[in-house]
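We emphasize that the prediction below concerns an isolated chain of 315 residues; any contacts that depend on oligomerization or on bound cofactors are therefore not represented. The input was used exactly as deposited, without trimming of termini.
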Amino acid sequence: MQGIIGVIQDITEQYENERKLQMLYKVKDAFLSINTSILGFTSEKDFFRDIQTKLLEVFDDIDCASVHRVDDKGEMSLLVGGAYSQEQEEPDVTCQKEIQSRLTIPLEVNGRLRFIISYESCMKDTFTEVDRLIADYIREELPIIYRVYELHHKTVNMSRYDGLTDLFNRKPFERLMDSHIDYADVTKERIIVALVDLDDLKGINDRYGHLAGDAYILAVRDVLQTFGGKKVTIGRLDGDEFAMMFSNVEMEQVMAFLEESQKKFAGQDIVYEGDVFRGSFCYGVAEYGVDGDKKSRLMRVADQRLYDNKLAKGL
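Result of the prediction step, given as a token string:
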């Protein structure tokens, strides 16, 4: 009898070891795939959605899976998650099933709990010691991959967005403009470009200091952003120069917005550390297909009209 028990134990141990190796290979393959795709993730949510999709192939009998983000105050918010089935490519937003088993993987990044991955099953005792060993491996290795993603994401953001205003820098803005122009004939998209130039930024810097100049820049950004919606893209091209690209907006609407914004901004008090001052801006507008069909031509026409606007204001 003891011999039979010993054989069963040996077979069980052999099975568990083989399963552990298979799961480990799957996890390593998943991590390798994620590493090679890391430049393509546009957001933290995309990053963890891809991880969740790949790691679901590692564990058996998973009905629900989620990733929660943990903020500096220890409060959690759902990043990715829901109910899964073989027929679904995407999870439901919430998991309505009765959960019998749960496997939790806390992820610490730079010494702080940042994310919690959870796998849940409607079956009792789904997760074995092997599952927990694999979870420990994920807990140790995944934060390393996340730090690579985070570093890349920060580097991309620094090159794509202006550090003061969070608007697009010149090159990303011009690339977006090129993309819209390339397809405008096919999509019949109306493209209007406006250049906006802040008046006397140097004078503000000289009189009140560069931080007051930053407040001046942020004030005009806030005014330009009041157009709102997805039909406008805004970039900061230079220290005092902004650009706006309107998609499928009537010229009359664009001109009305800029004229009203110009008047509003000229009457607005800008306050910085007790100093109160006012400013102004000039603008010029060009429309694709009317003023030109190349980016360089549109920018040149808009720039000339901006200069005309300055002359009209006596600047």
